[in-house]
Amino acid sequence: MSTKNFSTLTKRYKLVLSAVHMIYRLVNSTYNVEELSLRLTRLLCQFIKASSADIYLLDRSYKKIALGAIFNNKINILLNKKKELQQISEKEKKVARGYAVFEKHLIGLPLVADENVGAVIVRREKNEPPFSEFDKEMLAVVAEQSVTAIKNIQLYQEQQKIILGSIRFIGELLKRQGHAPVTSHTPVYFKIVKSLAEQLAVSQEEIGNLYYASVLRDAGAIDVPYNILAKTSQLTPEEFKVIREHPAQSVELIRPVDFLRPVLPIVLYRREHYDGTGYPSGLRREQIPIGARIMAVADAFEAMTRERPYKMRLSVEEAIKELRMNSGTQFDPRVIDAFIVCTGQKKFKNYLSSAKG
After folding, report:
1. Which of 157, 162, 266, 311 is most buried, by the most CB atoms less than 10 A from its CB?
2. Which residues contact 58 (CB under 8 A, 6 or more apart)?
3. What is the pLDDT of residues 124-161, one digit of tens each?
């Protein structure tokens, strides 16, 4: 073998290894199919030197394309609406159904495990070099590595839905039994939490944790006696002691679920105060997880603006004033500042108005 050929093979070997390593890192840092699909299209353009890359995933029940991700070296787009998915070409649908396509400026390979999962397609412009057999082999390597990751994440997401569905069912059951004072929250609650998190530049992973914490924050209400939950007058010291145990009971209920482990500190410490006077552990300042500090503000706003038999409801303006007054004591000043900034946004104002429900 000539030195030139050896050098070429070595470069190709390193490129394949690099692609496999990059996919491994990608999979281990991505927690949902949508994000994985978007990131894979960027990776494909990098390794195949394509002008654009598409990934299409099939709905497991109906075998129709349910999700698409596109990258053209400038814009990364997620397609998940029926109208958008209807515009996918017949050639792309054919690849998703299991047919490989190899043309000068287009390669399409089905993503196949024990069944068709979807398709991966790369393109080059007509004025660019045509794809080679090695490009096809590289795409096959990426597709093979990706399909297992996609299947695993899909299964993981399905398990999450089942678990969260069961917990929501418990919450609905509690509401029907009259536990609404603790377990009922406005539909826009998480939208308020998410807006604050985004304003504070919290990571997408942490926003995901906040979503689960918002759903599960009162799971422990199932262990609180009904007469305490339904009480309309002031709690006795003994009753308040029971309520103080509620965050820990919520945590114990969801602790066995592995994927919810990062959510536990948020649920447990959302009753802590920034100055250390809260419960259950008397944490202060940055000792309190940022997610818990965000939820504390959203909780307080919702509590102040909702109708209760034992207290008068505050207006949105009065509640914001109350939040300002407790900045630096009960609440993290940074979160309050983020809240005030968000109140300048029309969408956020609508959330606050809806939270009065």
Report:
1. 266
2. 64, 65, 66, 96, 116, 117, 118
3. 999 999 998 888 888 888 788 778 777 777 777 777 67
Helix (H) or strand (E) holding 354: helix 346-354
Q: What is the rounded CA–CA span in Å between residue 221 and residue 171?
A: 9
CA distance 119 to 66: 12
Q: To 5 degrees, how large is the angle CA 352–CA 353–CA 357?
A: 105
Q: What is the pTM of this model?
A: 0.56
**Among candidate residues 299, 163, 162, the one with its CA nearest the CA of residue 218:** 299
Question: Would you say how long the chain is, in residues?
Answer: 357
**H-helix segments, 175-203:** 180-183, 189-199
Give the angle subtended at the CA of 83 by the CAs of 160 and 198, to the nearest 5°. Answer: 50
Domains of the chain are: 3-155 (3.30.450.40), 185-354 (1.10.3210.10)
DSSP 179: I
